[in-house]
Amino acid sequence: MVLPSTYFTSTPFQNWTRNTSELLGSVEFDLDWWVSPAVMRTELERILDRTDLWDGRAQVLQVTDAVGGYVRIRILVTAVDAPTLFDLRCLVREQMVEWILAQNPSAIPRNRVQMVEQEARPVPKRGGPVTEPVGLFSGSAEAEQRASLFTSSITLPDLDDEPER
């Protein structure tokens, strides 16, 4: 059955695919390439074993992206309801940050810059620097003519001179 999206914004509906209030939540980190996902997984297990907020159903730590100089780590955890899940996500995030700072500081994100020697600039073919503008609308007679097509005034017809119908 295909229904327009306006149907769902204007008609109340109930999602029957869920039977309980148990929820799955995520915590994400952008970390340095020196991070060890396996060691982080061990720390996640330790954190979850020490709290009653986690309902014991799911704990997942995955590397979901590795671009732009960072590794994205996603942690999935479950809780019995939305308020508990929020508290659990905050707890996991806070304790992982503390653990990274204390035990794995090489995982803290860094910006890397590679210094190179300044390359010599190529010399123009004419032998010297170009001082005149060269382009689509300058540098030659044809270019100046093209420019005049865009910059000259346009004559508008006088509407008073037209015959009435």
Descriptive notes:
With 165 residues, the protein is of the alpha+beta class. It contains four helices and three strands; from the N terminus they run αβαββαα. The protein has helices at 5-10, 37-49, 82-103, 141-151, and strands at residues 23-31, 59-65, 71-79. It is flat.
Question: Mean of residue pLDDT?
Answer: 84
**Helix vs. strand class:** alpha+beta
Report the β-strand fraction as a percent range.
15-25%
Biggest pleated sheet: 3 strands, antiparallel
End-to-end Cα distance:
57 Å
Strand order of the largest sheet: 1-3-2
What is the helix/strand order?
HEHEEHH
Principal-axes shape call: flat
**How large is the count of helical segments?**
4
Query: What oligomeric arrangement do these chains adopt?
Result: single chain
Q: Indicate the percent of residues in helices.
A: 25-40%
Radius of gyration (Å): 32 Å
Spans of at least 5 consecutive residues whose pLDDT stays below 50 are none
* Number of strand elements: 3
